[in-house]
């Protein structure tokens, strides 16, 4: 009866929630238990594997779940979320492993309640640190690979990295406890490496004797090869299995490397067994990794998987201002907006543009303003202007959503066509210098108010819908070549 109610509730939620939200938060939950409270009201209890997920589900979805269940049961149903016991939480959820659901981008919090929940999680890190696992002093070599300038202080927070940053802060404050392993994924240059270094640096500040190792997946591969040739696997074990915190970047590089995967699996199991923490980064979510054994990918997904998204405009501006200050330069806000509007790919490119502007200003001994910035970035800006035309946008968007280019000018209205058309209008306004009437003309002689409506709608939705934001980001990158 309960399972049935819960099952039906899930089926309903699957149709009402965006797919990636359902797959990330609701689908992995185990079947619920039904009971009655003192007032004889129905209570549905669900066990959630960790506090982070519990806070998030409570803040974001509890009301929705209750109303769906109440509706289906024909009477009020109260949802009770409880933490699963450790052993239960640590096991990879069989449902996830077997059904291969798409573990997509984690949505950024929209409601204040969610922000409060996150703040509550973050504040846990301020508590005194947990007792360190018994360890002899760390060999100095175990700490060498951390970059001391990549800290939480130098990482600009924003919607794009909110979940990942909060989880990372939590791990830094209480390694070996929750979110183990922590799996951080996202596109190039979005701050994954920065974040994992920040955890390592924070832990070492707190516990200088902790054994922390940061390395790129390729270094692990070459270590395995070296030890394989020399038949010195005990050395490999001694190096990795003794760590308190392993930070490993770009695990997608393990693809097709069977022996490495086997060794990593052993390392992984050994570290988790002694409650050492593992943080991994990758360009995709665990189930999206190719040529990596499912035995590994399901373990990657067994702790917490979070995305880092491309930063939105305001965050790009904040990053520019902060990085300029760190270089001893003052960046006027209008200039920061100008650069941020023109350089959107990722933070690394943003840094590149900033370096050019700062160098140009120093070299010409002029203050930083828009005119100087235009000059400094003229190559970059002219490449953009040359490449992006409305026709190009229409073709790219039509290809992306698998509709005909002709549908961009047609009067057809089904959502499968109208929405890509609105997206193309939005991009046309954002990425070209064309006016609303000109864009309307190029979209089959539509009125400028139609274009305006599309531009506003997509811009607004982009703020709230991380899946759309990702798609737009891909389109923007494609258009910029
Ligand atoms: N939120 C941020 N605040 C400040 N600096 C940032 C932020 N995000 C990224 N950066 C900076 O951008 C640069 C690129 O970041 P990083 O190397 O961490 O990216 P990545 O996601 O690991 O990329 P890749 O997949 O290419 O390794 C670094 O210099 C980093 O310090």
Automatic annotation (TrEMBL):
GO terms for molecular function: ATP binding; DNA replication origin binding; lipid binding. Keywords: ATP-binding, Cytoplasm, DNA replication, DNA-binding, Lipid-binding, Nucleotide-binding. Pfam families: Bac_DnaA (PF00308), Bac_DnaA_C (PF08299), DnaA_N (PF11638). Residues 389-458 form the Chromosomal replication initiator DnaA C-terminal domain. Gene3D superfamilies: 1.10.1750.10, 1.10.8.60, 3.30.300.180, P-loop containing nucleotide triphosphate hydrolases (3.40.50.300). Its main location: cytoplasm. Residues 1-104 are annotated as: Domain I, interacts with DnaA modulators. It is found in: Cytoplasm. Residues 105-144 are annotated as: Domain II. Residues 145-361 are annotated as: Domain III, AAA+ region. One of its GO terms (biological process) is regulation of DNA replication. Transmembrane segments: none annotated. Residues 178-312 form the AAA+ ATPase domain. ATP binds at residues 189, 191-193. HAMAP family: DnaA_bact. Oligomerizes as a right-handed, spiral filament on DNA at oriC. Domain I is involved in oligomerization and binding regulators, domain II is flexibile and of varying length in different bacteria, domain III forms the AAA+ region, while domain IV binds dsDNA. PANTHER family: CHROMOSOMAL REPLICATION INITIATOR PROTEIN DNAA. Plays an essential role in the initiation and regulation of chromosomal replication. ATP-DnaA binds to the origin of replication (oriC) to initiate formation of the DNA replication initiation complex once per cell cycle. Binds the DnaA box (a 9 base pair repeat at the origin) and separates the double-stranded (ds)DNA. Forms a right-handed helical filament on oriC DNA; dsDNA binds to the exterior of the filament while single-stranded (ss)DNA is stabiized in the filament's interior. This is Chromosomal replication initiator protein DnaA.
